[in-house]
């Protein structure tokens, strides 16, 4: 230990990494690029996954192992003309997403918009009302720019230990928004994975490769219908 | 007389009798010598006693960092095998489940994310859960009670007795939690803590499928149990179960360098105490024996054998050493007991006062050994004192330079110093280095004294006034005290100044670490639109904005055209593939902060449109990706590729709570990129913290706040204590050093008596003698103090660089003060020494002293 207090700056840094979720997120452009270079002549339609570390594939070796990658694989094997763009950013909250969406709207056209945000809000105990407001803000911006785009909302729940009242309020945000904005809803993204020890990484919240496959299947179940 | 048997056996009782008889001749003078030994040993015993006591105090304080001897933590339920292990350890054990949850304040109807800790057992074993009211810290386990973090209480205007809802259970607030041991991890900072009794955990219904719970087990062992060894032994089992552990030693290492610095400092102080003891005892003994030479010569004339004379004085010195050491140990121990009592209103820390038998035995042993060792040197000369010496009244040193025993004695002295240094430092290399250092200092001082003797002889001009000539001549004439005084004054000054300088360095280091002006609150996830209003709100609350920076997440795409795949394939590139997997939190500015220093290249604060972007890389980051100034990096800023080159490499001081960055962009490119902001501030109290947090949460519900206050107070308290201990120990050692110095100058009292008296008899005026003495001591004092200080500066630089490993930045002005003070002190004591002669008629002095 060369410097005293090393513990704190290090802790503060790791905090950013932990709170913000992340490292390891091989490029979202990568997926686009590889998919784009896949032979087909006629332009493919684009599905943008806009989300946090779950979308980005925090802790996985490769972003293609995260659930958007799993969905891409299913699209490919079903021979559908869609390309998945991974717009995940570890640690993103709904408020962060509301700021970031402009950047993506400016440069990334899409046909289907999949919104996966809110998990970090829940883990930090932010008021569900503000999460709802931010998510609605994102949806409004998307609708304004691409009125034709189909919208999908991925529902999220918080761990049981947060308390029943908060859990219920939080869980209800998603069906309410989906209903109001006529979005396709995946009721709970982590269905069958959340809380199952061996499907999650050591931190207990990010799915393993195995877990991501189940998460991808959860999404595919609802998404398949609108492709 | 006619039948002297030179082959007679040694008659010990006679030797003892002679030793005693000889000492009777001048008890007053003997007392003076003993007093020097007493002060030397008292200094040593007092310093050692404080040292041992303080070490214990700090160690037990350090234990509050965890609150137990060992803690084992994990985030999943332990399996059967692990559970068996967990149940088998320790004398006392506690367990804790902690998790995030929303609590509800029933009366004020507020909801807040907290960190619930359900506790079972007597944890904390070290320190306590400090609560208001005090007894709540232990009583809350007796019923459905909770302890709630102070800031949280303030935030929700909650009072003791209010109820909170945790999950499905309701708890009454038994007390406000002010401080808790073991809360130094950052996890404590993220959310405020609420303690509940373990037995009501199930009632909350928060534990179950889909819960995220942390499991902690705390252990207390019997005193003396080797926790580290046990921890090493169970580590593989814990690893397999994804569990981790923490011990007091480990936590001390992680807490920073302060503990290491303190123990190194205490070793240094111990070592210096030993040398002070040496100086005190050795200078006394040396002069004492020299004065005995005439008596020895007379005894030889009377038929005493050389070996008998040697033994007589050896016995006498051992006796004197023993008496002096015993008295010194007693004095030292009483100082150690009295001082904290006397100073208790001034000392901000509590120093425990237990009799340290180790210190006492060490002191007595050292006293006797030093006395004998340093007496041996002049005593071996006794063997060569011929009876003629009396008749000649010669002051010429008896030539014994080639006596082989002399070298044996030198060797013994060196061995002794090395051994005792080892006892203090517990490191042979260190002990050897220190001993060599002392030898070098000793040699420097001796040669300075020797040069002084040579040069003053040449220097004195007949044109000088009598007083000047006489004053200077005293420095080289026979019976001069130049060498002995230069060495003892010089060494004492060197010790005092070294301690002073090192103390300065350490205190600067400790206060750098203490959080006084550092940030203790971090706000993050601030959106760009919220940046200005938040800054305004912060200022309006009277809080400083220590830093507010934008943070952009990006990833490294290429290093000089090489991608992650290339790096993985070709290890000769020496680019860590992990560098590509990492998400970088980057900021942009047009200038450097004062914790950054460019080591290579040039910092460019503004990007030119259309050209590659000049970035600054942190040195360790540059190393990881094997990049030099001018190398090209491509960053992927959330979908946009940015071509950059390394324009400079920075060294970052990661010492403080602040935002530091591996990669720094110039202004002009990232302003539009998706970003969030981080704000650091310093809140002076929990009340302010609560009000501020409330205001922020109300206006910007999405912003997350980390209050490091509670974390930092535990650490701060410790650092404060360490700082005071260093100040106290160095202050005390410096004072004892001065006392030893005084007493070693004091013993030169009888050196000058005869000459002064003769001068008086010859008609020298008081004034003249006064001036002569003053000049001699002034010159001796100034020269030795100066040499001592030069040695101290060199020594403290070496210590700072190699022992403490810190930059050498000291203020030398106070050292000039030390120089002046010691010179003045030497002159004053010299004059006091001859006061007796000046004030009494010469005959009286001659009668009593001749």
From TrEMBL, chain A:
One of its GO terms (molecular function) is phosphatidylcholine lysophospholipase activity. Residues 1-21 form the signal peptide. Residues 49-213 form the SGNH hydrolase-type esterase domain. GO terms for biological process: lipid metabolic process. It comes from the Bacteria. InterPro entries: Ester_Hydrolysis_Enzymes, Lipase_GDSL_AS, SGNH_hydro, SGNH_hydro_sf. Gene3D superfamilies: SGNH hydrolase (3.40.50.1110). Keywords: Signal. PROSITE patterns: LIPASE_GDSL_SER, PROKAR_LIPOPROTEIN. PANTHER family: THIOESTERASE 1/PROTEASE 1/LYSOPHOSPHOLIPASE L1, THIOESTERASE 1_PROTEASE 1_LYSOPHOSPHOLIPASE L1. This is Arylesterase.
TrEMBL record, chain B:
This is ABC transporter permease. InterPro entries: ABC3_permease_C (IPR003838), MacB_PCD (IPR025857), Membrane_comp_ABC_pdt (IPR038766). Residues 268-387, 728-842 form the ABC3 transporter permease C-terminal domain. GO terms for cellular component: plasma membrane. Pfam families: FtsX, MacB_PCD. It is found in: Cell membrane. Its main location: membrane. The chain crosses the membrane at residues 30-50, 265-289, 310-335, 355-380, 407-425, 431-453, 483-502, 722-742, 777-800, 812-832. Residues 31-235 form the MacB-like periplasmic core domain. It is a multi-pass membrane protein. The keyword Nucleotidyltransferase does not apply. Keywords: Cell membrane, Membrane, Transmembrane, Transmembrane helix.
């Amino acid at each position: 230990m060369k410097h005293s207090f090393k513990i704190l700056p290090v802790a503060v840094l790791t905090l950013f990494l932990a709170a913000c979720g992340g490292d390891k997120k091989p490029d979202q452009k990568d997926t686009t690029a590889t998919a784009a270079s896949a032979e087909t002549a006629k332009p493919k339609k684009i599905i943008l996954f806009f989300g946090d570390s779950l979308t980005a594939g925090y802790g996985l070796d490769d972003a293609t192992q995260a659930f958007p990658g799993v969905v891409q694989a299913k699209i490919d094997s079903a021979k559908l003309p869609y390309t998945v763009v991974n717009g995940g950013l570890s640690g993103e909250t709904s408020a962060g997403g509301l700021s970031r969406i402009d950047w993506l709207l400016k440069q990334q056209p899409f046909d289907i918009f999949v919104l996966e945000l809110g998990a970090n809000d829940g883990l930090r105990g932010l008021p569900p009302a503000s999460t709802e407001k931010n998510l609605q803000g994102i949806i409004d911006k998307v609708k304004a720019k691409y009125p034709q785009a189909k919208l999908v909302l991925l529902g999220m729940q918080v761990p049981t230990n947060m308390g029943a009242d908060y859990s219920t309020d939080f869980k209800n945000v998603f069906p309410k928004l989906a209903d109001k904005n006529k979005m396709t809803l995946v009721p709970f993204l982590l269905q069958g994975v959340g809380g199952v020890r061996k499907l999650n990484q050591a931190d207990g919240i990010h799915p393993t490769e195995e877990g991501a496959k189940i998460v991808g299947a959860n999404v595919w179940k609802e998404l398949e219908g609108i492709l | 007389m006619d039948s002297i048997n030179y082959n007679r056996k040694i008659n010990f009782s006679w030797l003892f009798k002679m030793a005693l008889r000889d000492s009777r001749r001048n008890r007053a003078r003997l007392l003076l010598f003993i007093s020097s030994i007493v002060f030397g040993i008292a200094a040593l015993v007092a310093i050692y006693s404080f040292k041992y006591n303080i070490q214990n105090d700090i160690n037990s304080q350090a234990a509050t960092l965890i609150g137990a001897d060992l803690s084992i933590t994990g985030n999943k339920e332990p399996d059967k095998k692990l559970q068996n292990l967990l149940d088998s350890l320790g004398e006392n054990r506690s367990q804790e489940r902690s998790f995030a949850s929303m609590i509800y304040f029933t009366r004020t109807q507020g909801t807040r994310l907290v960190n619930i800790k359900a506790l079972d057992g007597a944890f904390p074993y070290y320190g306590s859960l400090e609560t208001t009211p005090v007894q709540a810290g232990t009583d809350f386990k007796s019923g459905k009670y909770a302890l709630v973090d102070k800031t949280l209480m303030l935030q929700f205007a909650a009072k003791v007795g209010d109820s909170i809802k945790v999950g499905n259970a309701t708890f009454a607030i038994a007390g406000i939690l002010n401080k808790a041991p073991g809360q130094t991890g950052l996890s404590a900072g993220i959310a405020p803590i609420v303690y509940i009794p373990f037995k009501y955990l199930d009632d909350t219904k928060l534990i179950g499928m889909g819960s995220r719970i942390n499991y902690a087990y705390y252990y207390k062992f019997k005193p003396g149990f080797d926790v580290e060894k046990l921890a090493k032994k169970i580590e593989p089992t814990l690893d397999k179960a994804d569990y981790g552990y923490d011990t007091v030693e480990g936590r001390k290492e992680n807490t920073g360098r302060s503990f290491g610095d303190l123990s190194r400092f205490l070793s240094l102080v111990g070592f210096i105490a030993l040398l002070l003891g040496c100086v005190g005892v050795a200078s006394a003994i040396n002069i004492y024996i020299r004065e005995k030479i005439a008596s020895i010569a007379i005894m030889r004339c009377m038929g005493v054998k050389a070996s008998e004379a040697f033994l007589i004085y050896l016995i006498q010195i051992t006796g004197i050493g023993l008496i002096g050491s015993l008295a010194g140990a007693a004095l030292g121990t009483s100082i150690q007991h009295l001082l904290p009592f006397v100073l208790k209103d001034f000392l901000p820390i509590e120093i425990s006062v237990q009799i340290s038998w180790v210190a006492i035995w060490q002191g007595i042993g050292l006293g006797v050994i030093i006395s004998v060792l340093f007496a041996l040197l002049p005593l071996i000369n006794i063997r060569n004192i011929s009876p003629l010496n009396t008749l000649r009244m010669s002051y010429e040193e008896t030539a014994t330079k080639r006596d082989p025993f002399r070298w044996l004695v030198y060797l013994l002295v060196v061995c002794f110093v090395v051994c005792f240094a080892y006892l203090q430092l517990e490191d042979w290399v260190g002990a050897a280095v220190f001993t060599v250092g002392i030898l070098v200092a000793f040699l420097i001082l001796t040669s300075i004294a020797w040069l002084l003797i040579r040069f003053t002889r040449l220097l004195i001009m007949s044109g000088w006034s009598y007083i000047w000539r006489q004053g200077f001549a005293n420095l080289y004439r026979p019976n001069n005290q130049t060498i002995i005084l230069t060495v003892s004054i010089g060494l004492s000054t060197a010790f005092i100044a070294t301690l002073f300088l090192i103390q300065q360095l350490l205190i600067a280091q400790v206060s750098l670490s203490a959080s006084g002006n550092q940030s203790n609150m971090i706000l993050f996830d601030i959106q760009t639109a919220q940046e200005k209003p938040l800054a305004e709100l912060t200022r309006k609350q009277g809080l400083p904005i220590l830093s507010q920076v934008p943070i952009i997440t990006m990833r490294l795409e290429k290093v000089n055209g090489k991608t992650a795949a290339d790096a993985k394939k070709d290890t000769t590139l020496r680019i860590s593939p992990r560098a590509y997997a990492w998400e970088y939190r980057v900021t942009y500015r047009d200038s450097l902060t004062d914790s950054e220093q460019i080591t290579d290249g040039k910092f460019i604060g503004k990007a030119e449109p259309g050209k590659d972007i000049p970035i600054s890389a942190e040195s360790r980051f540059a190393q990881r990706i094997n990049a030099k100034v001018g190398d090209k990096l491509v960053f992927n800023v959330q979908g946009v590729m940015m071509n950059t080159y390394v324009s400079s490499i920075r060294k970052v001081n990661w010492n403080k709570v602040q935002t530091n960055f591996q990669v720094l962009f110039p202004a002009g490119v990232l302003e539009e990129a998706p970003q969030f902001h981080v704000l650091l501030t310093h809140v002076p109290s929990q009340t302010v913290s609560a009000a501020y947090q409330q205001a922020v949460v109300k206006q910007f519900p999405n912003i997350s706040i980390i209050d490091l206050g509670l974390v930092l107070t535990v650490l701060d308290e410790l650092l404060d204590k360490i700082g005071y201990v260093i100040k106290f120990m160095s202050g005390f050692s410096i004072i004892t050093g001065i006392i030893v110095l005084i007493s070693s100058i004091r013993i030169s009292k009888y050196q000058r008596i005869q000459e002064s008296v003769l001068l008086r008899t010859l008609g020298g005026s008081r004034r003249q003698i006064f001036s002569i003495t003053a000049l001699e001591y002034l010159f001796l004092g100034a020269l030795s103090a100066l040499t001592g200080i030069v040695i101290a500066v060199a020594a403290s630089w070496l210590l700072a660089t190699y022992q403490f490993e810190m930059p050498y930045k000291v203020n030398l002005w106070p050292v000039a003060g030390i120089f002046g003070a010691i010179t003045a002190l030497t002159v004053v004591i010299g004059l006091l020494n001859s006061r007796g002669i000046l004030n009494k008629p010469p005959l009286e002095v001659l009668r009593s002293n001749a």
